[in-house]
Amino acid sequence: MSSFVSKNQTDSDTHLSLFLLAYRSSDHEVTRFTPAKILFGRILRPILFGRPSDTPSSPNEYLNNLEALLERLRAFVGQRIKYASERVKARYDSGATGHHFKEGDKVWMYNPKRLRGSEPETAAELGRTLYYRQETERCYLKSSEVA
Q: 84: which of 30, 41, 94, 136 fits an S-S bond (Cβ 3.0–4.6 Å)?
């Protein structure tokens, strides 16, 4: 929206209808349908072009067709959203590693201390073996240190 309005944003009301028309008539990445198609069962078109040629002449026939179409769309969009949600979860879970330590396990502790006059690559003190105990699912507390 910010790309449509001027710098002082006094003309946002004049551009709002065009912005909403563009949003409602563009395909959503996950559902592959426009929001107007999902909500109204048809694509948005200017009144200048008149009634679509495939519109039934009977109101009852139109309502029956619309109801069936919206039901099919609802089921299909629900599947697409579920599939996209599973993809996002799988992508997140692939980067999140679950390390489960038990009390008494030896672990490495990273302690980045910069010593004066040393290079940053050699300044981190690695190699101290520590024992940790688990407090919560993600919180481990240092219980004792082994030299």
A: 30
